Amino acid sequence: MIDTGVDVTRRWTLRLVAGLAAGAVALSGCSERQEANDTLPGADAEPSASEPELPPLGPPDLPMPAAARTPDAAGAEAFVRYYIDLINRTSTVMDAALLREFSDRCDGCNRIAAHTEEDARAGYDYEGGEITITEISQPLMKGATAEMAIRMDQARFRVVDASGSPVDGGSEPYSALLGGAALVWSPDRSTWLITSLTFG
Questions:
Q1: In this model, does residue 61 exceed pLDDT 50?
Q2: Cα separations (Å) of 1 from 14, 99, 179?
């Protein structure tokens, strides 16, 4: 866990890290760094003309891409990238409902959502804090589940009140954060759901 010596009660990084670091080692296949693979299984698969069009998921301003809705390694990676985009979206809309919608008992995801909702009720806004994935490993597939290691950067983050003045909860930028993600495929909704998100 990152410790900068500042109050991290609502810090954006804490939303990703607090209570999760211990679970990182539990993600088999995510404990060692692996190089990203540009040729994941299914990456070049074209949808069949006879396949029905999937109902849309996600908000109108950030719909879930079709690439994230296939039950293979390529789909799992695309979904994790999409989920990080949803986390980044909370900095502009202060609405974390979709983080819960696309998770399945993911404590870290629920923690991010709860802090965002708490700050929104307090009338706070977020500035910065964008998370950028710099590396992602080849997903480890097992039945209807997928696991992968992630490396990412996070921009400087500020929590501000209605007047635009900073309040406790911001953080300096971080680089090369290591972690992992675990997913489960939901055939009823034709999407992945995130079950664990760890950084530390």
A1: yes
A2: 9, 22, 11
Query: How does 69-102 read in b/e, with b if 16+ C-beta sit within 10 Å?
Result: bbbbbbbbbbbbebbbbbbbbbbeebebebbeeb
How large is the C-alpha radius of gyration of the chain?
17
Element of type H or E holding 142: strand 140-142
Counting the structural domains of the chain, the total is: 1
Give the CATH number of the domain where residue 108 resides: 3.10.450
Structural domain contains residue 7: no
- Indicate whether 74 belongs to any domain: yes
At 24-39, the pLDDT tens digits run 333 444 444 444 444 4
Rounded to whole angstroms, the Cα distance separating 75 from 183 reads 11
Check: pTM over 0.90? Answer yes or no: no
pLDDT of residue 169: 85
User: Can you give the residue range of the structural domain that contains 178?
Assistant: 12-37+61-199
End-to-end Cα separation, the chain, in angstroms: 5
